[in-house]
Amino acid sequence: ARRQGLADVISITTRKAETLEEARALNLGDVYSLDPAEAVAGADLVILCTPVGAYESVMKAIAPALKPGTILSDVGSVKRHVHQVVGPFVPEGVHFIPGHPMAGTEHSGPSAGFAELFSGRWSILTPEPQVDRAAVERVVAFWEAMGSDVELMDAAHHDLVVAITSHVPHLIAYNIVGTADELESVTKSEVIKFSAGGFRDFTRIAASDPVMWRDVFLTNRDAVLEMLGRFLEDLSMLQRAVRVGDGPALEELFTRTRAIRRSIIDAGQETAAPDFGRPHEAPPAPELPRFVKEHGGGEDA
Ligand SMILES: NC(=O)C1=CN([C@@H]2O[C@H](COP(=O)(O)OP(=O)(O)OC[C@H]3O[C@@H](n4cnc5c(N)ncnc54)[C@H](O)[C@@H]3O)[C@@H](O)[C@H]2O)C=CC1
Ligand SMILES: O=C(O)C(=O)Cc1ccc(O)cc1
């Protein structure tokens, strides 16, 4: 936002003094405060960026300081719960426009951000239908200025979509790494030593922030359970195909899934963010089409 000149003043508040100092050392904002109410006073746009489980206490702290006309948004990974817990605290005249940038890494904290993070990625907004259209357009323009494509949808639909595309995949990663960790016949050092295969990709995802993901699963329970149920049914079929040696069934599925990977690459939605070392030190993101062309075939692109 700062690089694009989207705000005259960027005001940052965090829970812990050390996190605020980290943000200050990285020169991420203009003013810094440990008092959330002080930080949002007079703001035109307020974006909640805490784990979703903290939203209610944050709203209690900031609601009295929000001026009429302010746009209140967020970046939380679940949306129905956010409407439920934040909605009741939104003061008259404040425009509540929840959002979810579909971009991130397994890293967290101020140093995990980098200016190109949202470039070429989707941002989803889930405003209620009665919300002021001009305010919605301003939030759309904000994300577009950061390089995102923006889509508006109903919060319940958002939660189902991300349950299958993001939440269940994280649960699977946490589970498989946990299972490997508990194996007795394979030592831990072997797991680490031979993790060049698919397991390695799971360990990246399973290194994601424990509190953030705890809150995701506590607050998107219904959609996650719905998708997990379908996943387990399909896994049982796969288990049977392996047991009875049903080669055609295995090949048919693997052919279909390969096509999905290719369509993601073709749509330019695959970026190198996870492979950067320290994310904020990442080189400027190349134009996506060129990057995909250069790395397009590589499965780790
Ligand atoms: N990490 C990712 O890849 C993505 C995260 N999100 C969402 O963004 C939000 C923030 O995630 P990150 O930026 O990764 O986390 P982060 O750990 O980098 O930042 C979270 C901030 O929340 C504050 N905080 C934590 N607990 C708090 C509490 N109990 N009360 C008040 N403040 C508290 C801290 O100041 C901390 O700096 C989450 O809701 C997450 O679902 C959305 C898209 C991607
Ligand atoms: O690190 C990854 O691969 C991610 O999937 C990042 C991510 C985490 C949470 C979200 O709500 C959106 C994106």
Automatic annotation (TrEMBL):
Residue ranges, annotated region (Disordered): 270-301
Pfam families assigned to the protein according to its UniProt record, in alphabetical order: PDH_C, PDH_N
Gene3D superfamilies: 6-phosphogluconate dehydrogenase C-terminal like domain, NAD(P)-binding Rossmann-like Domain
Record's compositionally biased regions (Basic and acidic residues): 290-301
Highest rank taxon of the organism: Bacteria
Record has Ubl conjugation as a keyword: no
Positions of the Prephenate/arogenate dehydrogenase domain: 1-272
Keywords: Oxidoreductase, Signal
Name the UniProt record assigns to this protein: Prephenate dehydrogenase
Species name: Devosia nitrariae
